[in-house]
Specification:
The protein has eleven helices and five strands; from the N terminus they run ααααααββαααββαβα. The chain is α+β, with helices and mostly antiparallel strands. Helix 8 packs antiparallel against helix 9. It comes from Rhizobium esperanzae.
Length: about 260
């Protein structure tokens, strides 16, 4: 026997509950009546494609998960998923390359929704020379695994417990928002790594505005803060799931070290 296809109402209800919204709250947000929404969820009313996309937008449903909503309602998928080497993606790939290159001599990477490395600028390579397990650097590279694995960067992160908590917290939020089982699997893997010892860790205070990465290198201690950049109006699934993580020096010593590394 094949499993019964999930109804549109099941999909909508799951996303509404994931966002912790009542029918009334979503109806108000979408500017429709609660009765209308109730009829859609129960299958007594069939929404138009525009209404369904409107509800998905109000629920902040990822583009990847909007196509199943459309299919469940009998509509064709709207959002394409192209590989980055597809000719149609050339402008986006060029934009990523410009951002990464323009950030040098400071490090920056592009990652997908599972934290798989898509691209990196030249400032990243010198920071990875101390990685003990070279298989962690074999494609596909997962940057969270690389950061927290005991044979990766973890032994060189001087505030590992703080940085680990920061990364795991981000991953928890991402899984909570998406329900992606691959993220749940990654989260469980990271939590299985040995807990860091905190006795000799570096502690810094940036007035609560950022969690720094304190990375020990042969050139000296790097203090880095990061920002995340995403495409503002993507209509392609792949593009909507890409993020650029840019690292900035938190002090002049770090800036000087990174500039010197770029010259070598």
């Amino acid at each position: 026997m094949t499993p019964t296809a999930r109804s549109l109402g099941d999909h909508l209800r799951e996303w509404r509950q994931r966002r912790r919204m009542s029918q009334l709250a979503l109806a108000l947000e979408a500017e429709i009546s609660q009765r209308h929404l109730s009829f859609i969820e129960s299958g007594r009313s069939t929404p138009s494609r525009d209404m369904l996309l409107h509800l998905a937008e109000r629920l902040d449903v990822p583009l990847r998960d909007r196509n199943p909503l459309l299919l469940a309602a009998g509509f064709a998928p709207v959002f394409a998923e192209r590989a980055l080497d597809d000719p149609a993606m050339e402008p986006a790939r060029r934009a990523i390359d410009i951002v990464l290159k323009g950030h040098e001599p400071f490090p920056a990477i592009a990652v997908d929704r599972h934290w798989t490395l898509i691209a990196a600028n030249a400032a990243i390579a010198p920071l990875l020379s101390a990685v003990a397990d070279q298989s962690l650097l074999t494609a596909p590279v997962n940057v969270l695994r690389l950061s927290l694995h005991p044979q990766g960067l973890a032994p060189h992160i001087k505030n590992l417990s703080e940085w680990r908590a920061h990364l795991i917290g981000r991953l928890r939020q991402q899984f909570s928002a998406s329900g992606d089982p691959m993220l749940d699997k990654l989260l469980k893997e990271l939590l299985s790594y040995p807990a860091p010892k905190t006795a000799d860790e570096v502690h810094t205070d940036y007035a609560g505005i950022a969690v720094p990465l304190q990375l020990g290198t042969k050139a000296g201690l790097l203090s880095l803060i990061s920002t995340t950049t995403i495409f503002g109006t993507p209509v392609d699934i792949t593009l909507s799931e890409l993020a650029v993580e840019s690292f900035f020096p938190a002090d002049e010593e770090t800036a000087a070290i990174l500039r010197s590394l770029a010259l070598n």
